Amino acid sequence: MKLSFQREREAPSRSVPTQADFPAVSGADIAGMVHGQRMGGDLYHFLRANSNRVVFGLLDVAGCHEENQQIVSAARQTFQKLGSERFADEGINEADTMMEFCLELNLSIRRSAAGVRSCAAFLGCYNEELGTICYANAGHTPGLLRDPSGITELPATGLPLGLFSASTYEAPTAALQPGASLLLVSRGVVEAAYKKEEFGLERVKQQLERSSVESAKGMAAAILDGVQQFLRSAPKENDFTALALVRAAKGQVAVGA
Fold it and tell me: Looking at residue 38, what is its pLDDT?
């Protein structure tokens, strides 16, 4: 039986993070959190495709919320439908499936926009049995993979969705060894500015190095708290989103299990 969970972010009335109640992931912990009011087109999504695979994504549709609400909704529906269908079969090639998944999302966004609308996206499929992440980074902020060797960037593997009908995407696979974690942040996090100085990806990395690797919720909250401290105030002009996936260390029970 396929189980799925989805949530489009609601506009919080306060500046503390809000978190989706993600279902348990075998041997791992996953959480998504957001600071600030709903200003743009950020969307994170999560679903279980079968007993071993969970599909997740962080998308950022260009434009303000009022003008891109329909496009965000179309992307969410396509993600839910095709994510459940395409990744369900145990015998699929995950890389090929992820590339097809990107193409379908790309077409869905273009149809809904009736033309061009840029949508940066990081899409991933976590294989619980293998501890691997097959991913596509469509012009998104690099994913950050932390393990004992340090922090590795997972850079763009293609252009943002919604730009060209014939776009192509690569879908490499990264190993998430026990105790390792993956962090995704929205463009708003990196571009948050105080007196014309941006928070930047390097500060995200520094926050990640200092944060707990045992709790996805704690990791996401630490990043967003760091942004608010940098701004010296609650975010007003943008919304900041963080999604974290933490694989439990050997002999450790996952926090979200």
Answer: 55
